[in-house]
Amino acid sequence: MPVDLNQTIFVAGHRGMVGSAIVRQLQAKGYTNIITATHAELDLCNQAAVQQFFENHQIDQVYLAAAKVGGIHANNTYPADFIYQNLMIEANVIHAAHVNNVQKLMFLGSSCIYPKFAQQPMAESELLKGELEATNEPYAIAKIAGIKLCESYNRQFGRDYRSVMPTNLYGPHDNFHPENSHVIPALLRRFHEAVKDNAEVVTIWGSGTPMREFLHVDDMAAASIHVMELDDTTFKANTQPMLSHINVGTGIDSTIRELAETVAKVTGFQGRLEFDATKPDGTPRKLMDVSRLADLGWKASISLEDGLRDAYEWYLNNIDSARNK
């Protein structure tokens, strides 16, 4: 079935890293009617405002990329903010989509939904089979609730609400805040400043041994649109009952030490790396089983080094605004 490029698509969270990438790629594919709203124009935590927004627009599809996100420090410091805001955003948007007869919706989750000691690589079936990582449990619970919201509206009302669970994302429009960012933007900023200051040593949180998988946000956006464009028969043939979410990743991981060494190469840092083992490591390993997505015809194409170079170039070009997010 051909894709209708004139349908009205609402991208929630279009100013964020993932949402902006989705908008770019939808435009590149020829979609002509993409609607967005800034936080000043629409507070997604305000149920009445979200409902009114959907009533005012004849929306055909939704990409729900809006979320409150952050690294270990931010999750530890603001747990109430993370669970409340994410629960409100997804509940308001998903319910308003249903009430206003939006049949197709894409919910973007996170790999942190899986147990801390999930079997590696993590298949979709690992969901709810163990204890979550304590440092981001409130955020993870909110994302699990989003998956279950989509599943529940599908079961009760026959909606076509799909969920994708990305691995660790990075790229243009990332958050480079010195305390609240994820590992890649934090390292890119720290190594950049070390080069600028002629520092001899860069100290990195943790032991350097945890394994992590990283996906460039442009690959994430491409995968999301690919899954959304799949016809209903193809999608359902690959989706088990009560297991509607799909992992998105590269299927390749590296240690934090290896990541730091690659960031050093990309930024030109030639000094020494030190690891502070008194700081938390988080989950020992997080590698996604992406076989279901491969069966649906999509694989990542951007290598880690190439992706890091792209992210660093964006940071250099936007350093005044990116550094203070």
Automatic annotation (TrEMBL):
Binding residues for substrate, per the UniProt record? R190, W205, R212, D281
User: SUPFAM superfamilies, per this entry?
Assistant: NAD(P)-binding Rossmann-fold domains
Give the EC number(s) under which this enzyme is classified.
1.1.1.271
Tell me the protein family, please.
Belongs to the NAD(P)-dependent epimerase/dehydratase family. Fucose synthase subfamily.
Species source reads Acinetobacter terrae
What job does this protein perform?
A: Catalyzes the two-step NADP-dependent conversion of GDP-4-dehydro-6-deoxy-D-mannose to GDP-fucose, involving an epimerase and a reductase reaction.
* Designated name of the protein: GDP-L-fucose synthase
Gene assigned in the entry: fcl
Catalytic reaction equation(s) = GDP-beta-L-fucose + NADP(+) = GDP-4-dehydro-alpha-D-rhamnose + NADPH + H(+)
Q: Entry's InterPro entries?
A: Epimerase_deHydtase, GDP_fucose/colitose_synth, NAD(P)-bd_dom_sf
Q: Which PANTHER family match?
A: GDP-L-FUCOSE SYNTHASE
* A Pfam family annotated for this UniProt entry: Epimerase
Which residue positions does UniProt flag as site: Important for catalytic activity?
S110, C112
UniProt entry keywords in alphabetical sequence: Isomerase, Multifunctional enzyme, NADP, Oxidoreductase
Question: Which pathway does this chain act in?
Answer: Nucleotide-sugar biosynthesis; GDP-L-fucose biosynthesis via de novo pathway; GDP-L-fucose from GDP-alpha-D-mannose: step 2/2
Where NADP(+) binds, per the record, is at 13-19, 108-111, 143, 166-169, 182
Which residues does the Swiss-Prot or TrEMBL record annotate as the active site? Y139 (proton donor/acceptor)
- Span of domain NAD-dependent epimerase/dehydratase: 9-233
